[in-house]
Structures are given as structure tokens and as C-alpha cells.
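Colleagues,

For the teaching module next term, I've prepared a clean inverse folding example: a structure given as C-alpha cells, and then the sequence designed for it. I'd like students to try predicting residues themselves before seeing the answer, so please don't circulate the second half yet.
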């Protein structure tokens, strides 16, 4: 399975402009360009929490897909928002565990301009 092509063809991720930039061996990275439409604040670009969550979920899923070579629906994701995302964002994900029924992935989301940690997340995905 061409993992990057799989995620490029995901309509919701495409709508937000999420790009999976690296994906192999249980590791994935991706980015999102902040636009006014993705901001929760009309006076200043500040990523809506749902945008940050979707970036983390998409990149986390990509990391796991690189291991199991099939789609992995999200079962659960816990995210801690640590700072406001005021510009472009990028995410880094690493698989913690691949099981027959579920896989677990850790994801960090950063500000692209200064590498501030915006959020950290742990996703659980269905693998079987």
C-alpha cells in the first residue's frame, strides 16, 4: 500500500490541507498550513482544537498504516493542548505497539516556525 497516496486521497484531511510528508517503519510526519478558515479567532490566526486534533489523528494513523499495510480506524485519541498554534503546524508520530486487534501511537504537534510543542496525543487504532 502506498501510504502517502492513501492519506492524500482522504477527503477530510485534504479539505484541511494536511500533507503526510514522511511515512515508514512505524514513523510518520505531516504538516498543515494555517489559514483563516482553520482559525478559531477572526483577529489572529490560532488553530482550532479540532484542526490540531485532526492533524495528530491523521499522522498517527499514517504511522500505524506503515506497519500494518491496511486502513486503521481510530478507536480513541487523547490529546493535551499545551500552547496556541498561531501558524503552520507539523506533527511527528511513532508507533508504540502493534497488536492483532489494536495499535497505539504517540503523536507530538509542533509550531512549524519555532518548534513550540503545541499538543501531545496518544491514539488507539483498530488493526484487526
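(Answer key — instructors only)
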Amino acid at each position: 500500500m502506498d501510504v502517502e497516496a492513501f492519506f492524500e486521497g482522504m477527503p477530510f484531511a485534504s479539505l484541511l490541507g494536511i500533507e503526510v510528508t514522511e511515512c515508514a517503519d512505524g514513523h510518520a510526519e505531516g504538516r498543515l498550513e494555517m489559514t483563516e478558515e482553520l482559525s478559531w479567532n477572526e483577529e489572529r490566526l490560532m488553530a482550532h482544537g479540532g484542526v490540531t486534533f485532526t492533524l495528530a489523528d491523521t499522522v498517527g494513523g499514517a504511522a500505524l498504516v506503515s506497519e500494518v499495510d491496511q486502513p486503521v480506524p481510530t478507536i480513541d485519541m487523547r490529546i493535551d493542548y499545551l500552547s496556541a498554534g498561531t501558524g503552520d503546524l507539523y506533527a511527528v508520530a511513532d508507533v508504540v505497539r502493534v497488536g492483532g486487534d489494536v495499535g497505539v501511537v504517540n503523536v507530538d504537534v509542533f509550531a512549524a516556525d519555532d518548534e513550540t510543542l503545541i499538543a501531545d496525543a496518544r491514539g488507539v487504532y483498530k488493526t484487526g
